[in-house]
Amino acid sequence: MAKVLMKGNEAIGAAAIKAGCKYFFGYPITPQSELPEYMARELPKIGGIFLQAESEIAAINMVYGAAGAGVRVMTSSSSPGISLKQEGISYIAGAELPCLIVNIMRGGPGLGSIQPSQTDYFQATRGGGNGDYRLVVLAPANVQELVDLIIEGFDIADQYRNPVMILGDGMIGQMMEPVEFKEPKQRELPEKDWATTGTGGNRKPNIINSLYLAPEELEEHNVKLQAKYKTIKENEVKVESYNIEDADVVIAAYGTTSRIARTAISQLEKEGYKVGLIRPITLWPYPYSEFDKINPNCKGILTVEMNTGQMIDDVKIAVKGKYSVYFYGRTGGMVPTPNEIIEKVKEVYGGEK
Amino acid sequence: MLKDKRLRFIIGHYGSGKTEFSINYAIKLVKQDKKVAIADLDVVNLYFRSREKTDLLEKLGIKVIGSSIKGAAVDIPAISAEILAPMQDASYEAIIDVGGDPAGARTLGMYNKYFVQGEYDMFFVLNANRPETQTVEKSIEYLRKIEDTARAKVTGIVNNTHMLKSTTVEDVLKGQELAEKVSRKTNIPIKYISAIEKVAKELPKNLKGEIFPMTLYMREEWMV
């Protein structure tokens, strides 16, 4: 298929349908409302269901039900709406159900603003809901990667029976870029023999549940979950790096911010600075080992985010105290400019190239 | 160029490039020493609206009219009453940047009395690289639906077929083929062929419609 121009939010809908998702439950919120609108228009055409629930809490529990029945299902929202979904997300993780949850982040806390932010990093990677659970968190930096990760995200969810979150900022949702819909790499996916599809009188009922009242059983369940998370950590880390073996300063950034950093790096190179980039594509599992490849004489790692410092915690874990870690961030819906990043890199350089 | 009617309404499918075209149009017009106003009627889109470029436009001497509520990032469909100024004051050359789709054109209903035949232009911005306007049938469907909602007739087509900064001559010519078919079926002339400057220079000169070189004011340097 030839390239077309799509807004991020529309592209998410098109990619999900391409991945075989026929069910969407959600509630509108800026800056992702084009996505439910797209699904409302397109899903009925393919015999699917779009349902605007009475609230985000209802929507995520509808996702729980649909995922329990074994179908590919998605919900989407933006920051405050994702906060409302946390209880359901924890239940879904506990019941080991595959689904896709899209968070197109806006400024916070509370209702915040409608402009782009990355302030939900903690919530996405540390879990806003209760319990020792993990989401696979995918952070696209452009609309093409968004499409590719949505399609692969459904496979990851099915492979591990785990909810997957797409974490994009408002800019990714609203920006228009060229995209094409490629055939995804085929993964070996297990049969959904656990789904509640009716026994036909031939087997015992399947039960979808996250309640284990006996402590021994709940501990056993948690051990099983942790073993699964370990496998995901081994298999599913995605990261893109640029020139880190040779860099005097390395920037760590994801999503939109990584693109602005990349523009800053091109400019700095023209001025003779050697700056690398680590761009995590999976925020959980985090690409900690990528930081081991950094030039041992690097002057410091600069984390750039559209928040007041969240991923910086993972960067500090990754560098194990070997390098000084610096931060630059804008918040409230402000987007950093390449020039601001250039100035900060020069500060880390400390005046000498 | 730009010898259009005093009131120019810019409509089209969501994401067709109306705002970028409107801003370019206003800037070209003010460079001809005209008294120019640009009105942002977009209540559909919340990012990438012309009001974000208020500072740039005002420095050039263009009057910018946006929401009645201050702030570029407001999620409220409020339109300033000031929009009537350029409609009533005939000393203004006005560009009215309308929201995308029939939903966005609904705001035009309340200005119906200013749509006097022969005294306004309404340009339909067409981008053949947008999935919803790749065929003649779909493009005409959008055009007619917007006309119905706006209660006014389109007077010209703008072929704005692009792939952002990576637009090629082929993109524009593909769009031109679509625009010509739409034009033939609807009897609406192609007024402009808009393209980024390096592509505009390379276009054949015998195309229907005037070549309209564009600067991408809405795209930040880090965007493609």
UniProtKB/TrEMBL annotation, chain B:
One Pfam family it belongs to: CbiA
Q: What range(s) does the CobQ/CobB/MinD/ParA nucleotide binding domain occupy? A: 15-165
Gene3D superfamilies the UniProt entry points to = P-loop containing nucleotide triphosphate hydrolases
Leader sequence range is none
Q: Report the domain of life of the source organism.
A: Bacteria
The record's InterPro entries line, in alphabetical order, gives: CobQ/CobB/MinD/ParA_Nub-bd_dom, P-loop_NTPase
Q: What is this protein called?
A: Putative ATP/GTP-binding protein
Native source species: [Clostridium] ultunense Esp
Organism taxonomic ancestry: Bacteria, Bacillati, Bacillota, Tissierellia, Tissierellales
